Amino acid sequence: MPAVIEPVEARPDQSDGVLRVVQKKIYAHYINLAYTLVIGTYFVAFGLYLYFRLTNLVFPDKIIYKRFCEQHENETVVRTGFHYASTLGAFCASEFIQIVCFFLLTISGNFLRIRRHYRYFISMEEKLLLELRYHIRKIMYSTVLQTFVVYIMSSIAVWASIFYMVGMRDEVMDATSAVFIHLFDAAVAIYFIAFPLISFVYHPDIRCSFQNCVSVPADPNETPRRYNAPFRGAQFPTSTSAVHLTAYKRADEDITEPMDLRVRITTTV
């Protein structure tokens, strides 16, 4: 089974339309574009929230907003607890979508990068992982446009919610509205803490930076990358045939002679 498997639909074709070409271009740079969108949304939201909060501290004077339409000319705009509650609900929903998307994006490297135990031997476990990787990439390709559109819409909802809750400097009319504003501050704090926390706990490159480990690349021509050591904590893989081989050779000591491999395996039965 080949080490690098991509969906057939993702391959370039001269008969592709504009939408299909855009889909394939985005899929080809899926990880980079996804991280750019996630990090960009995060820092824009953080900057907006910090700017509006500092503005409220520096300029504590309240602003009275008036309507400009002829029917309600000069009518004061008043926000009630319902407006704050609905905005808080929209922010929490968008926050949940973005945190889940970032979590799946962070752990996707564990499934898209197969850790090879041997150069010249593919165990049943690795074959299953390759099949899983193929199906994951197929789903990624078929939903790439919808995923990015949904994330962009949720990003706009996050920015708009921050502006509506802390950017408008009108007077808070009742205690219920003040409670919802404090709940919004708590939700924003969770939002800003969740992304660095997920990166620190689940991102494979960040986790591997604390461990001295290099895995065998799936492609012999590929430069080895740093991942968790496959033999740390567990010296034997689950496949029975791989167990016989592991009893004699580790990943960095692969057997190159087929006859030698056959004799060694049969002698252990």
Automatic annotation (TrEMBL):
<keyword id="KW-1133">Transmembrane helix</keyword>
<keyword id="KW-0812">Transmembrane</keyword>
<feature type="transmembrane region" description="Helical">
    <location>
        <begin position="179"/>
        <end position="202"/>
    </location>
</feature>
<feature type="transmembrane region" description="Helical">
    <location>
        <begin position="88"/>
        <end position="112"/>
    </location>
</feature>
<feature type="transmembrane region" description="Helical">
    <location>
        <begin position="143"/>
        <end position="167"/>
    </location>
</feature>
<protein>
    <submittedName>
        <fullName>Serpentine receptor class gamma</fullName>
    </submittedName>
</protein>
<keyword id="KW-0472">Membrane</keyword>
<feature type="transmembrane region" description="Helical">
    <location>
        <begin position="30"/>
        <end position="52"/>
    </location>
</feature>
